[in-house]
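re: ur question from earlier - yeah i can do the single chain one, its not a big deal. heres the input i used so u can compare w yours
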Amino acid sequence: MNPTMMRLLLACACLWLAACSPSSSTSLSERLVSPGGASPLLDQAHIAATIATLPNRSGKVTSRVGVPIFWRAFDAGDYGLHYRYARPRHEGGQPMDMDLRLAPTGRFHAQPPRGTVVLLHGWMMSGDAMLPWSLQLAQSGYRVVTIDLRNHGHSGNGPAGYGTVESDEVVDVIHALRASGEVQGPLYLFGVSYGAATALFTAEKLGSEVQGVVAMESFANAGDAIRSMIPHLLASQPTGWQAQAVAAYARWRYTDQNMDEVIAAANRRLGVNLDRVDVSRAVARSQACVLLLHGDDDQHIPVSQGRRLAQASPRAHYIEMRGEDHITLPMRIDLLGGVVNDWMARDAGGPAGLCPAPRLPMEANFMALAQGGSGSNG
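and the output i got, formated as tokens:
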């Protein structure tokens, strides 16, 4: 896969800046109701061409409210994935240095899965944008199912629920795929940002059907997240002429807007109160083990939200990564791939009712490891 394309793809994973890049007739509150398209930085044609070279299956499940939800499955096996990441550079050139290549050694042979991982993407992304993690987990022995949330990718449209209605539809897809044999063995949910909140709501609803949840940079409360995210995005100075133009337009149009009024307008259109979309309660009620991951430099969803989630349940373990933000954290497959794989393997094989602490490599990047409900971040 082209390294430059992967830089763009991974850099814009979960990047909510696109929510502030509307047409001239679209209000900010309307963007909170429905994203209205994919991130302009997402090279959908190139991603689709890459996936077309890989063995996979896909289909749609019609949800309980009539929204068609797209899914894609990758079998466990060797896809020839090779990934390299270097620390971001900010003094000219590319803002980061990473490389993802697919170099299959021969004909692909599917392996019996050790379980199933359902991947859930961020705002204005799609399941296909999770390709690097899909292949990482598939090569670790899991069948991987990506789901396009409503308003995203190949799925149908409907008012956003900030994880509440989306999780109902994820439940519908999982039940349909379990019945057809696509979901096998212990079930794990893995979500990033908006998808992480959706994964946590899904785990609450599925109860004992979910073995564990990996939630990367989730918000704890939707209203709080919007109030911190939008001002940060409006003040940001992204690299690249296209992103700079989008940011300049967003500042011109939205800087003086009152966020409480914007959220109130979105509430009326959604029929929900975003200040009551509380992911912490979902974590507290979940029967699954939960691994929470957050970067301490995250300004989109501040690290305080991750710490709040960590205190919600003794079944949650929390890791902060020093120097990582909302854009770079999902790229750290080089460090987090092994951590996640080890945690899921020990969780599935451990004593019932106990949630293992993640085992971390000897890296200075990891900090603030805590078990939920302990009152400590250290």
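The first helix runs from residue 3 to 11. not sure if urs matches, ping me
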